Queue: 2 jobs
Job 1
Amino acid sequence: MLCRSFRVSFGLVIALAVAILCNIYLVFLLWTGGQQSDYHYEFTVPPIISQEAPIKLKDSGLNLNYLKTMLNSSTNNVDKTSSSRSVISMMNKLKRELKSRGAKTVDTLGSSSEWVSPTMLIPSFTPELGDMIKYLQTSPITRASVPRVGTQLKVMITLEGGQKALLKPQWYDRHHRIDGPDVYSGADRHNGEIVGFYLSLLLGMRRTPVAIGRIINLTSDILANADRDLAATFFKNNQSHSCFYGVCRYCKPELSVCGGEGDLIEATVILWLNDVKLKSNRSPWQRTYKKNVRALWETDDDFCIKLQKQNKVFRLEAGKRRLLDLIDASVFDFLISNGDRHHYEIIDGYSEAAVLLLDNGKSFGRPDLDYVDILAPLYQCCVIRKSTFKRLEMLESGPLGTLIEELTLKDSLIGPLLTEEHVQAINRRLGKVMRTIQLCAQVKSWDDVLVPY
Ligand SMILES: Nc1ncnc2c1ncn2[C@@H]1O[C@H](COP(=O)(O)OP(=O)(O)OP(=O)(O)O)[C@@H](O)[C@H]1O
Ligand SMILES: [Mn+2]
């Protein structure tokens, strides 16, 4: 008898211990976004659980299947021909910033070193922007080395005047469709980085470093200036063109980039942020990058509410920007179809630093597909900055795809950056973003959805 009751209580203790461990694991999953990362970044994360009184949260967001059904059944009936006066004046202002004034390199670099603040990489009106674009497009390359950041093929270049920039080469032509199984399949799309930069300006999310297109001579621009490690990855293919594969986690000779006629390649050149210490955080909406393993956010419609309860960094309160920034980022990513924002970066040392929009190359893989789950932060939280909503509303009348083309065509040294199909996809996706916000307003109210800070 005694022995039996001992066995029962022992069993109870074990069951209790297992339950406690399960709970701790659940909290850990919520905190980390649901899975272990494949990435080897050093990053710090805020404390897990706040002991404060539970916060009152508004209703949950929208379920993905419901949203997909609604988006497929509705047409976007915005009059696309009528650019409003506000669009025209916004475009004129942007064009003024993007126009090169012919300043000397030292002046351009001198003023750009003051651009960065904890909430913006480019101040809201930056007349030196055009000169910076020109500088990145034309300044001779004086050094090329292995960047040792990230996992994909890149080159760190130094331009005359001493400014560093990241070079990401072209892998695909504009019409290539990425047929891989996942939203993040394939190599980087260099044009996506450039479009991302211009889109960030149009959206008023100046959190993307300047990215431009440039034709590079692999031999005279890169190999001739390369350090030993980078130079060691160069070879000639059987058409006697220069090729290289660089040094990175996924770099190997079978995945090399080769010059065409005259050893020329297209590349994007991204302004390197000097003297800025970045902090990398795992995105709560990170994918698992594993077949058959779903992240917590993919299985729990209440993910956003739980995230806010568990981690006060993501709480929606005046003065807190992290959640609203991630929602802005999800809209930006959905428009360019970037499903690879596994981490996000902020400027280190500021509690309310903005979420930066770095690394936009895994975009524009499929013009015919809209990966609605990229929008999860928006439809699961069902809130968005009022200013972002107003901006989107204005851009819809552009239409946005045309505005992007207009800005990029003026600057581009590498021709149109997007095929017509991709341009149309941007407009279609913006329609879906607006419809998602409307649906949120139906389950909540406009006042609850549009956040005034
Ligand atoms: N313009 C920049 N200025 C300063 N640091 C940068 C810049 N661009 C990227 N970085 C840093 O380098 C890291 C790697 O860059 P990026 O994400 O573009 O490369 P990636 O190879 O695609 O990385 P991953 O494989 O992790 O997605 C970024 O996480 C960031 O810390
Ligand atoms: Mn990347």
Job 2
Amino acid sequence: MADSDISMLMADMTARARAAATRLAAMTSDQKSGALIAAADAIRAASDTIIAANALDMEAGAASGLSGAMLDRLRLDAGRVAAMAAGVEAVARLDDPVGDTISRSERANGLVLARVRVPIGVIGIIYESRPNVTADAGALCAMAGNAAILRGGSEAIRSNRAIHAALAAGLEAGGMPADAVQLVPVTDRAAVGAMLTAEGAIDMVVPRGGKGLVARVQAEARVPVLAHLDGLCHTYIDRAADPEMARALAVNAKMRRTGICGSTETLLIDRGFADPAPVLAALADAGCELRGDADVQAIEPRALPAADADWDTEYLDAILSVKLVDGVDVAMAHIARHGSHHTDAIITDDADTAERFLNGVDSAIVMWNASTQFADGGEFGLGAEIGISTGRLHARGPVALEGLTTYKWVVRGTGQARP
Ligand SMILES: NC(=O)C1=CN([C@@H]2O[C@H](COP(=O)(O)OP(=O)(O)OC[C@H]3O[C@@H](n4cnc5c(N)ncnc54)[C@H](OP(=O)(O)O)[C@@H]3O)[C@@H](O)[C@H]2O)C=CC1
Ligand SMILES: N[C@@H](CCC(=O)OP(=O)(O)O)C(=O)O
């Protein structure tokens, strides 16, 4: 599509989204829930169509050489479509934050001040080729009273179109504006540029992806951004770690699902930790390629030499860089230099060291004696997630309904004039 046509398409979509957002903001919680339940039914009813569209994406993905992990992320079957519909229903059952009073105070002059949650407005989401995000993100935005413009990964375009068609039809049948959730129907990356620069037309953009997307966002974004970027996550095994816990968590943090953003990419091991060999052996036995320096190779002979670039690499695969460090402060300095502010964990039985790490590491999620793979809205009890916010504003970590709202001050007086 020509860039001028993309501009016109995006201008039309954003105008329709704004109109929908105005109507959504006035809907009650029950009305929004009802529409989402209708959307879940519509997704279930369209299961065969969605799976057929996905088969075409899978065929094209395999032909273009997508990795096994990428194909697994793209793949839908009856179970996954059913899970997607159930996810939309789960969002419908969440408590609606819109209208909640965050704080209330009364001034000496009698003015009563309240901060009340409101929708953000029009939210643009750019995400990877994972089709279930179309349903999750659309449902979360709508339940929080926002209109969504979704731009999924190009490899998933046919699946996304099919899911979106069902979702939008279901929402409309359930009484929500059809434009509450729109999908960018083309794969041209110019649409991403148009979203990033749509000041006034889009209120917030969520970029969910890796380095290529980061670079573009940094260069072009003029719309407020809630970054959901790469997960270069660390697990640090402290000298006071329980050896069995260290082994089990290191394997889980890397190998449970290697392709997700919460997977550990670098293992830091305190030189004072007595038992590193079983940890590294367990990882290698589980099929993980280890990369480390000579010290690491001396402990685990299957480890390959690490290059400088390894400390800055998000593998999203069964590969782990491993470094020996002199204590928690050096570990924290390494994370500050090489991490991506996503999720970092310490394994230790020493509560003081743990607190030092939890306070000192500046990431959206910091963990003590837990696997970084728990970085997930569902696992945090939020029902679903847009993703993991790695930015600093205004929500960090798993973003769900509350992260998709802002607030306004409501001031109630009895005729006060300012002296
Ligand atoms: N923090 C979080 O919540 C999450 C983070 N991630 C991160 O995403 C990455 C993995 O996904 P991956 O498939 O590599 O994601 P990509 O960054 O390649 O793709 C994500 C989206 O961004 C688009 N995109 C990428 N580069 C550009 C560009 N230069 N201009 C315009 N659009 C662009 C893609 O479009 P196109 O299809 O055209 O390439 C796609 O829609 C990992 O780094 C992972 O950590 C993943 C999920 C959640
Ligand atoms: N937070 C989700 C994973 C999100 C994610 O990383 O997605 P992807 O990069 O598409 O595999 C989970 O833990 O299942």
